[in-house]
Every structure is written in structure tokens, then in C-alpha cells.
Design brief:
The chain has 139 residues and is an all-alpha fold.
Length: 139
């Protein structure tokens, strides 16, 4: 949890976490079978993607999107919510980052969460979709 607390806040905090060289080592545990490892990793990654476009891109380059695809189906409501929140911050980024989310096929499970998820999960999934439509291209 320490990295999640350190990465929570302004971009300078996020940059300090990035400069420690741990982004890839935080992305990978998001796919761990144990929630006690998966959840703090997801929170840390979610905090990093609240940063600037370059900070977000580093998370994408570290292989987060395929893991997000699995986490959108996680049995834990809180994990699905945190994952949708992280994706909503990515889809608030560049057109290229939105395209990465499209290519990772994350929109079908987001739409499913909007249709059938719990209210708080629905809200985050809706933001992810809304941000993409606001910043995306017509293609």
C-alpha cells in the first residue's frame, strides 16, 4: 500500500514513484490471484494514470491494458470500480491512449458494467466511455 499512498496526489508525487523504476513491477501484480496483492497494485496504477499524458503512457507501455481486461470481470465490486476508474483516466488522455483502450477491447466489458453493474461501478464505467467520446476521433 505504501506506493499507492506515495502516488496519491500531485504529478510530482507520481513522478517520484515513476523515477523509482517500479511501474512495471506494480503493473504485473494487478493480475495476481490474491486480492491483498492485486488491490494495492491496482490503486497505485490508478493513481499514476491520474497524472499527465506521459505518466499515463508509461503505464500503458508496461502492459496494464490486458490486465485491466481481466479486472473488469473480477468478482470483487471494488476491483471492478477501481479498474473502471483507472480506465476513465486513460480515456481522458490522448487520442492514441483512447485508441489503445479500443484496441485492447475494453469497451464491451465497460458497456456491460454500465448495463448491469452496481451503481458505483456503473458510474466509473460511464465516465470511461464518456471521456473517450469527448476526446476521441470520429474513427
Amino acid at each position: 500500500w505504501a506506493l499507492s499512498y506515495m502516488s496519491d496526489g500531485p504529478n510530482d508525487n507520481i513522478q517520484a514513484v515513476i523515477e523509482s523504476g517500479c511501474v512495471r513491477r506494480v503493473v504485473e501484480p494487478m493480475g495476481h490471484h490474491s486480492a491483498t496483492i492485486r488491490v494495492p497494485a491496482l490503486r497505485t496504477v490508478g493513481n499514476i494514470v491520474t497524472g499527465d499524458d506521459q505518466q499515463t503512457q508509461l503505464v500503458l507501455n508496461s502492459g496494464a491494458l490486458p490486465i485491466f481486461s481481466r479486472l473488469l470481470h473480477d468478482p470483487k465490486r471494488g476491483v471492478r470500480k477501481e479498474c473502471a476508474w483507472a480506465i476513465s483516466n486513460i480515456t481522458a488522455g490522448t487520442q492514441g491512449q483512447i485508441q489503445n483502450v479500443i484496441e485492447a477491447n475494453l469497451f464491451p466489458p465497460l458497456v456491460q458494467l454500465v448495463r448491469q453493474g452496481e451503481f458505483d461501478v456503473r458510474k466509473e464505467a460511464a465516465w470511461a466511455i464518456s471521456n473517450a467520446t469527448s476526446g476521441g476521433s470520429a474513427q
